[in-house]
């Protein structure tokens, strides 16, 4: 297996638009756009014009002048650079493995059996390639070891008055400067001995490490990153120097280390000569000084750096260039180019799927589609010691009822009649492609536990010459990764087939709910929505029955029996002992009782229009729905529309406990825990009945989401929150959410179990469910958006031959009342070499797991400890790779595995998120809401939630179906002359630059003047021009990919709303103290060096 030909692995958005291949689009910053915008403002997209005139990253060489010059002073003035002692070493990056979309050149596997690919810059000079992590050996020019005085401000490549040329060129003699073809600029960083760490918990057995000053805030100060941009300016006149892959930083007074410059490896690879430099190559080009900034920022604290050694005057290290560190956009685009065109067939064991951001078709050939299961690692370590050493989490994110695109076949329904599904006698695994038939087909050996089971006579079939059953491809359970079984009565509760489920709508009619309009809106919508209840056959009406309750301090039940002329109301005021006052006529068929139901929905808003009752109950409301389902002996779902903290005297009464003073203290965890145990007990009763609760909240102040959310999150339900609900601007979002929630595919009374082959077992579960034992995940409701994340641990050794198997079986009641089993099978490889593990991981799934793990941990640990342990685990993963898999190189370099090169940027987004590091304006309710929301997210949703999707609309080509290539989430990527669309799965922002062109504004907003754009609009005007139509199509298609409707917010540059928008530019420093990507990468490097030393 050629180690360098492993496909890239990296990260997600929802499935991108059809045909989105990221081809260069003409932009406003240069050529004319097809629809005729003149070139007026060159967008500032990073230093110089690296992105503008040239093709986008990964599709051709970047203009080298752009990388060589100091960046122009952008409108978003970067903070002045900071002078810091050089001991706070900046990493030089190396990531060795081709990143370009073309197929990498072949490398003979014998030369380095276990090094996985790492991302590496392609060179245009003779490329020495001893292994995936490239390393040259040779003497360093002696001048490198000290810098007697700062370099001359106009350092030309050919004249360095003091100190060496900032380059390392293969086969050059010390002191002789050889001109090289123009390639991106190298980075001479000065790296000292490992500096003190930054306040993360000490390793087991390691001495305690000194704390990092101010670690409550960012891991490193963002105004004063551990590097300043005051060093020698980049040579911009002569030819830029060749970029070496590993540049060895040295420190004044230290003996020179080897530079990667001698040709002591194997000969240069054929075909490696002419690759253009990729934006993602060796991470470590330096950015020249910002023009106009002359010196250090005054009074900058010197974070954690030891005092400068009294050596000769140190040259200031340079600020790390954001263009030279791994780019999420580049990785996403590369994956689309490499994996987006061919269907992904699941027949190959241990093959990592395309990223969630790539649009691809799946062909099920024996393993579950990645739409159902994604793993953190597709090569599992053979034993627990190896797993412990690497610290890579072994987990699967499972979405059992995931919807499939129209071009993929939904799982087949298999019916084995009265005998039911065939299973292993010992471990009870269901028949699947991993069962081996023996003795002519009379028995089968289980792939999970190796037990041999008799084949029932009615299931017998002969084997062919390969030992496969001759009907193998006619039976989904023998040839597919995913399928459904019809079950027998033995699989049903109390050994009787279930009744069809019911939906009960419980509407808060207190003063707040009536005043903000939700009562009227819900009643009006339900009149039409009830025609769209879920059904399996679109031509047949739904079996689901419906019921209605309104409430404030008391509950009102409604009899809507078809024979009545008018609905009847029954009031239950004894909320302490809840019961349902009527049996017949509460749950009805929509078609039979339509007239009575419509009459009721017309009357409710009138009945309560003049209410003065402000207090509400909440516990008794759920009890009422539960009792109604018990009385009808069926499972079902409660839709609760609620507006305020339930302070009325009743079970489950709550008090306002919002206390911002606890944030950041050891008691902060209590704010995420429910304030009373009542709801935990109630949730358990709901699960036993198959009663799922969906909660729609319309709060104007604190409602204690942490407590109200206990029942929804324990029953497989959802929470929707519309703070300060205003009908004109929020109605569209609420109604779209409600429609989707009522119509989507859902299973009731579900139990999920994950079986594994001998050697590993499922030990931990994350999601919205209840567990009464250690193996069964119980879900009162399981809809098509919910995921369950499962962590695996070793309990024995695994073998490389057999790999590791898992089978997820979900028993559920369909919306028509049938009891079914949904089966998903997954086989992954096992490896005894760490390098193989690191070659086949999926960063997006790892981040999904880390986020869920961390968000659960805040219930029991202070957020600072949770953040620290995340950084620590990530550092251990990367340090283990560095120590065991990368070829030897200087400690001053950060070397990342190819498939994990985005781990630091994404992990930083999790660390900076509102749950773990909130800004002052983030409410406790919002944090509790997001914590519960992330717990059930799939990988595509968590990807775009933590790293939002940012599209430059000024580059939109209305003639093409392709979207413009996304840009990185950083303010310096925004052009004053541009308009950008940002979405994160919960919000859509349209950011308008102050200098955006009049014609562009006219086409989008119908006005040419920036000042006339209404920032309060929530939908774009439907204008009759191609640009307006295409943009509205894009917004609709982005909304269609997400499980929640995203409200559009228009943000004008320099407007007050811009602060909210900037919160989602996650590569920048955050207001709450979160580090920028550049700073966090340096911090991560320091942590890794600490572990290695």
Which structural traits does this protein have?
about 1100 residues; alpha/beta; 7-stranded mixed sheet; 23 helices; 29 strands; globular; disordered N terminus; protein transport; Sec23/24_trunk_dom
What summary fits the major beta sheet? Answer: 7 strands, mixed
Structural class, from secondary structure content? alpha/beta
Distance between the termini: 33 Å
Helix content: 10-25%
Shape: globular
User: Helix tally?
Assistant: 23
As a percent range, the share of strand residues is 5-15%
What does the radius of gyration come to? 31 Å
Q: Taking all residues together, what is the mean pLDDT?
A: 79
Report the strand count.
29
Residue ranges: pLDDT <50 for 5 or more in a row?
A: 1-91, 94-316
Please give a quick description of this structure:
This is SEC24 homolog C, COPII coat complex component. One of its GO terms (molecular function) is zinc ion binding. This protein has 23 helices and 29 strands.
What does this structure look like?
The chain has 1093 residues and is of the alpha/beta class. The protein contains 23 helices and 29 strands. Strands 5, 7, 11, 19, 21, 23 and 24 form a 7-stranded mixed β-sheet that branches. A 7-stranded mixed β-sheet has the order 15-14-13-12-16-17-18, sandwiched between helices. β8 and β9 form a beta hairpin. α6 (518-529) runs parallel beside α13 (727-743), α15 runs parallel beside α17 (903-911) and α15 (843-857) packs across α19 (939-946). The longest helix is centred in the C-terminal third of the chain and has 22 residues, at 863-884. The chain is globular. The chain starts with 63 loop residues before the first helix and ends with a helix. Residues 1-91 and 94-316 have low confidence and may be disordered. Residues 964-1035 form the Gelsolin-like domain. Residues 498-742 form the Sec23/Sec24 trunk domain. Residues 843-942 form the Sec23/Sec24 helical domain. GO terms for molecular function: SNARE binding; zinc ion binding. Residues 84-93, 121-147 have a biased composition (Polar residues).
């Amino acid at each position: 297996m050629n180690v360098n030909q492993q496909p890239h692995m990296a990260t997600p958005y929802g499935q991108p638009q059809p045909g989105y291949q990221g081809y260069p689009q003409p932009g406003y910053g240069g050529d004319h756009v097809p629809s005729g915008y003149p070139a007026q403002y060159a967008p500032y997209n990073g230093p110089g014009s690296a992105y503008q005139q040239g093709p986008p990253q990964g599709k051709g060489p970047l203009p080298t002048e752009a990388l060589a010059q100091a960046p122009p002073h952008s409108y978003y003035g970067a903070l002045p650079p900071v002078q810091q002692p050089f001991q706070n070493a900046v990493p030089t990056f190396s990531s060795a493995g081709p990143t370009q979309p073309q197929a990498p050149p072949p490398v003979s596997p014998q030369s380095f059996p276990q090094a996985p690919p790492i991302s590496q810059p392609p060179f245009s000079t003779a490329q020495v390639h001893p292994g995936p992590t490239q390393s040259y050996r040779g003497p360093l020019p002696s001048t490198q070891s000290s810098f007697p005085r700062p370099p001359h401000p106009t350092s030309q490549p050919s004249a360095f008055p003091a100190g060496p040329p900032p380059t390392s060129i293969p086969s050059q003699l010390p002191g002789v400067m050889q001109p090289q073809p123009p390639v991106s600029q190298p980075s001479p960083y000065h790296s000292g001995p490992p500096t003190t760490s930054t306040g993360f918990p000490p390793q087991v057995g390691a001495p305690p490490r000194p704390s990092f000053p101010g670690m409550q805030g960012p891991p490193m100060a963002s105004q004063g990153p551990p590097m300043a941009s005051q060093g020698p300016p980049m040579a911009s006149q002569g030819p830029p120097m060749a970029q070496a892959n590993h540049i060895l930083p040295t420190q004044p007074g230290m003996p020179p280390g080897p530079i990667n410059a001698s040709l002591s490896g194997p000969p240069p690879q054929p075909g490696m000569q002419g690759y253009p430099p990729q934006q993602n190559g060796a991470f470590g080009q330096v950015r020249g000084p910002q023009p106009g900034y002359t010196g250090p920022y005054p009074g900058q604290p010197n974070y954690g750096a030891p005092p400068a050694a009294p050596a000769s005057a140190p040259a200031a290290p340079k600020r790390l260039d954001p263009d030279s560190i791994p780019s999420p956009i580049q990785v996403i685009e590369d994956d689309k180019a490499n994996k987006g065109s061919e269907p992904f067939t699941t027949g190959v064991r241990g093959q990592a799927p395309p990223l969630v951001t790539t649009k691809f078709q799946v062909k099920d050939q024996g393993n579950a589609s990645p739409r159902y299961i994604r793993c953190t690692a597709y090569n599992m370590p053979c034993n627990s010691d190896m797993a412990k050493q690497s610290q890579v989490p072994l987990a699967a994110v499972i979405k059992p009822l995931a919807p499939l695109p129209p071009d993929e076949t939904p799982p087949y329904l298999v019916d084995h009649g009265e005998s039911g599904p065939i299973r292993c006698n010992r471990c009870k695994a269901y028949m699947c492609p991993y069962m081996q038939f023996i003795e002519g087909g009379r028995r089968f050996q289980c792939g999970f536990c190796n037990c041999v089971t008799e084949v029932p006579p009615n299931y017998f079939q002969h084997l062919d010459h390969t030992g496969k059953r001759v009907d193998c491809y006619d039976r989904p359970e023998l040839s597919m990764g995913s399928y459904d079984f019809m079950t027998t009565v033995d699989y049903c509760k109390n050994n009787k087939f279930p009744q069809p489920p019911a939906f009960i709508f419980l509407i808060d009619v207190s003063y707040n709910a009536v005043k903000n309009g939700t009562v009227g809106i819900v009643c009006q919508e339900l009149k039409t929505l009830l025609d769209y209840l879920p059904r399996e056959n679109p031509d047949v009406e739904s079996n689901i029955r419906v019921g209605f309750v309104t409430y404030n301090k008391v509950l009102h039940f409604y009899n809507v029996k078809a024979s009545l002329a008018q609905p009847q109301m029954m009031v239950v005021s004894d909320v302490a002992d809840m019961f349902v006052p009527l049996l017949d006529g509460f749950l009805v068929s929509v078609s039979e009782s339509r007239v009575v139901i419509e009459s009721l929905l017309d009357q409710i808003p009138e009945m309560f229009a003049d209410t003065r009752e402000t207090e509400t109950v909440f516990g008794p409301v759920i009890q009422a729905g539960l009792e109604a389902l018990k009385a009808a002996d069926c499972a079902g779902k409660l839709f609760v529309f609620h507006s305020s903290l339930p302070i009325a005297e009743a079970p489950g009464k709550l008090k306002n406990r919002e206390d911002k003073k606890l944030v950041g203290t050891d008691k902060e965890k209590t704010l995420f825990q429910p304030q009373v145990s009542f709801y935990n007990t109630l949730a358990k009763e709901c699960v036993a009945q198959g009663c799922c609760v969906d909660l729609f909240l319309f709060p104007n102040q604190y409602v204690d989401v942490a407590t109200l959310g206990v029942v929804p999150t324990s029953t497989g339900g959802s929470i929707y929150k519309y703070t300060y609900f205003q009908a004109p601007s929020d109605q569209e979002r609420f109604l779209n959410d409600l429609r989707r929630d009522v119509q989507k595919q859902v299973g009731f009374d579900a139990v999920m179990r994950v079986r594994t082959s001998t050697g590993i077992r499922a030990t931990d579960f994350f999601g919205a469910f209840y567990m009464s034992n250690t193996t069964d995940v119980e879900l009162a409701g399981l809809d098509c958006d919910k995921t369950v994340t499962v962590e695996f641990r070793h309990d024995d050794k695994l073998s490389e031959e057999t790999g590791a198997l898992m089978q997820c079986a979900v028993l559920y009641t369909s919306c028509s009342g049938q009891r079914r089993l949904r089966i998903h099978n997954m086989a992954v490889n096992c490896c005894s070499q760490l390098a193989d593990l690191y070659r086949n991981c999926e960063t997006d799934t790892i981040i999904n797991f880390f986020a869920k793990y961390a968000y659960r941990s805040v219930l029991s640990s202070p957020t600072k400890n949770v953040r620290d342990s995340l950084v620590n685990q990530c550092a251990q993963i990367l340090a283990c790779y560095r120590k065991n898999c990368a070829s030897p190189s200087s400690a001053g370099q950060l070397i990342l595995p190819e498939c994990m090169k985005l781990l630091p940027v994404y992990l930083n987004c999790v660390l900076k998120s509102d749950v773990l590091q909130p800004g002052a304006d983030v409410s406790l309710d919002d944090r509790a809401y997001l914590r519960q929301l992330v717990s059930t997210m799939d990988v595509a949703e968590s990807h775009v939630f933590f790293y939002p999707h940012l599209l430059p609309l000024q580059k939109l080509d209305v003639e093409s179906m392709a979207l413009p290539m996304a840009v990185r989430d950083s303010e310096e990527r925004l052009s004053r002359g541009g308009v950008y669309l940002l979405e994160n799965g919960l919000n859509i922002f349209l950011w308008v630059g102050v200098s955006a062109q009049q014609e562009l504004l006219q086409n989008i907003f119908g006005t040419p003047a920036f000042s006339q754009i209404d920032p309060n609009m929530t939908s774009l005007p439907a204008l009759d021009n191609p640009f307006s139509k295409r943009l509205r199509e894009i917004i609709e298609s982005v909304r269609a990919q997400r499980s929640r409707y995203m409200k559009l917010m228009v943000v004008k540059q320099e407007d007050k709303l811009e602060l909210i928008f900037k919160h989602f530019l996650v590569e920048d420093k955050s207001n709450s103290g979160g580090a920028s990507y550049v700073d966090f990468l340096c911090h991560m490097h320091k942590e890794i060096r600490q572990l290695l030393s």
